[in-house]
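subagent[fold] <- orchestrator: predict structure for attached chain, return C-alpha cells only, no commentary.
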Amino acid sequence: MRIAFLLYDQLTQLDMTGPAQVLSRMPGAQVEYVAKTMDPVMSDCRLALMPTLTLAESGQFDLLCVPGGYGCSAVMNDEETLGWLRVQAPGLKWLTSVCTGSLILAAAGLLKGRKAACHWAWGDYLPLFDAEWVAERTVFDGNIITAGGVTSGIDFAFRVLDHLHGPDVAATIRLALEYDPESHEGGTPASAQADIVANVRAITAQRLGHRDAEMRAAAARLKGENP
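subagent[fold] -> orchestrator:
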C-alpha cells in the first residue's frame, strides 16, 4: 500500500509523525512525504521535515493523509495543492486527515455532505464547506477517515490498522511501540475545567488572526462567491 503524508509550511508535526510512525509498521506499507518542492518543510515547532516526493512526481497513492496545523489556512487557498488532492481522490482507497487537515480536504471540495472530525477549536469551520463536524477522535464516512486534534492521529492510525489488517496486527504494532497512554481528565472541552477551556479558546482566537479570513475566503471560493 502506497501511503502519502502531505507536507506544508507550519503543519503540526505530531499530526503527521504520530500516524506515520504507526502506519509505517503496517504490512506492505510504503510511506512517502509529499510537498510542492524537495526543500525542507518547517513545522510549527521548528522541526524541519524532508519530503521524499514532490506533488508533480508523486503518482497515485492508496492512502493519503493530510495533517493539520496553523499553516492549513494558506493551503486552503493554494490551488496547486487543492488540485493535486482532487486528482488523487478518485483513485484512493482511503482519504484521511488529522486535526485541521480536514479543513484542507473540505476546501478542496472533498467533504461535501460528509461527516468529519477536526480539532475541537476549529471544527465550527467545517459547515462553511457543507461538511458536518463530529466531535469524535476518529470518524469514518465511506472511504474518508478523519481524526480530531493532534494526538488523535495516533488513535486514528490504529483504527486504520485494525480495519485493514485486524485487531491482532494492530495489537502487535501497539505493543511494539509501547502505546499504552495514561488516562487524564482535561484533554477535551467536556472534561477540562471551564476556565482552562476559556483560556485555550482565547489563545486559539488570538492565533487565528488572518487565518479566519483565509478560511472564509477558501469557503467562498469553493462556492463560487467573491471572497
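orchestrator: received. Logging for downstream: Residues 16 and 67 are 5 Å apart (CA to CA). The two ends are 39 Å apart (CA to CA).
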